[in-house]
Amino acid sequence: MTDLGPDNESESDARAVARQRDIALVARVRAGDRLAFDGLVHAYMRPAFQLAYRVVAHREDAEDLVQEAFLAAYQYLDSYDAGRPFGPWLMRIVLNRGANLRRSRARRSTEPEVDAVSPAPSALEESERSDTRAMLTRAMAMLSERQRLIVTLFDVDGLTSTEIGEMLELSPGTVRWHLHEARRTLRRALTPFFKGDG
To answer: 36: exposed, middle or buried (C-beta count within 10 Å: 0-12, 13-18, 19+)?
Structure first.
């Protein structure tokens, strides 16, 4: 039996309100109100950018990708099935175009942005961070591209298996299986690191 506490109910209500908003905005755009599309952009800009950044790992590329995805969504809005949620449909566009963009720009190296405000870490802290980052990067590289994305969307972005499934066109059960397999792989890869810590 599923426990629908106050948090789950309010989250469900918020989704229902967002869904009704999206249906109304899409209907207005299809009726010729181009400005109504701004409402969809406003509602989905942040999650689209977060997903784009996860896919291409470069700020400017992510910005370009989001603009391209919204343009494609606008151009192909007639093919969108209004019986399904708009957000996952848009996120699939981001994912598909992001994969294409990443392949086309594979040669360009990307460096993470440095926070200029934070104090400089000591040599020991920097060495430990570098070792940890390298270890995590190696462990994540052992996962398939799909599993890396699922782990990030679930554990970092806090999406549910249902939301991820809608984005990736997978059943929630398949998402949970990928998540389980990815975590098992990561545990195996990271266990030696933590054993050596004690």
So the answer is: middle
